[in-house]
Amino acid sequence: MERAEQVLQNAEKLDCRKYLTPSSLVAGNPKLNLAFVAHLFNTHPGLEPIQEEEKPEIEEFDAEGEREARVFTLWLNSLDVDPPVISLFDDLKDGLILLQAYEKVMPGAVDFKHVNKRPASGAEISRFKALENTNYAVDLGRAKGFSLVGIEGSDIVDGNKLLTLGLVWQLMRRNISITMKTLSSSGRDMSDSQILKWAQDQVTKGGKNSTIRSFKDQALSNAHFLLDVLNGIAPGYVDYDLVTPGNTEEERYANARLAISIARKLGALIWLVPEDINEVRARLIITFIASLMTLNK
């Protein structure tokens, strides 16, 4: 037990003490151990830069939305769902993690008397019971105003990646909205356009003039706008000598990496990676700006 505590103390020095306790580490819970190691890897990957010949494989891998899946996995685990999510599409199939997430985001939303739970043995529930759970999750989303046209519980059970990502994104977006509501002077949900206006105001406040039309604007790819937002929040924090023109892929990546590094140093909870900025993944960029808003409340 003493050695297990030492392991976790070392992890704490790396800001990675999560998921495990000394007793659970000694007990050898495989899912918790995997979640712990995955968190270590995500925080300190220690990987060499991707080589040109490897890029086609990476692009093919991400074509099925795996990068968004990684972000949503991290977000769900930040809610302390049990067990931790390791493989998003597989782990959501029985609906239990989704329903836990609903309850974490909107306390009281789920009537757990209507939820089919796993048996004490930990065995998987039947497809029929999984369908009842996922249909309940979809119905809850519709009741809460989510846009879930064409999504059924069977899509989640069958691991439909596009539709599963769509549902989880709307749940994450609601979580962001609830957080933003506490920051809004009106106490109302903040739309994407209001979040964008806030970001633009920070740019102006910092004496910069970069601008974007929406979170899908390709001008975001060089990260200049995000760096200018950070400059408005924390004047002098962005060393513009380190900011590149963003004319090449390498320069855009360096800028995005700098923006993420500064945001984390300011205490923001950041889910995306530089490629998400360079490729202008609107959903993930919204989460970036939303995290900055919580710093500036």
TrEMBL record:
GO process annotations (BP): actin filament bundle assembly; actin filament network formation
Cellular compartments per GO CC: actin filament; actin filament bundle; cytoplasm
Protein name: Sac6p
Keywords on record: Actin-binding, Calcium, Metal-binding, Repeat
Molecular-function annotations in GO: actin filament binding; metal ion binding
Domain Calponin-homology (CH): from-to ranges: 1-45, 66-176, 189-297
Domain of life: Eukaryota
UniProt key word Calcium: yes
InterPro entries registered for this protein in UniProt: Actinin_actin-bd_CS (IPR001589), CH_dom (IPR001715), CH_dom_sf (IPR036872), Fimbrin/Plastin (IPR039959)
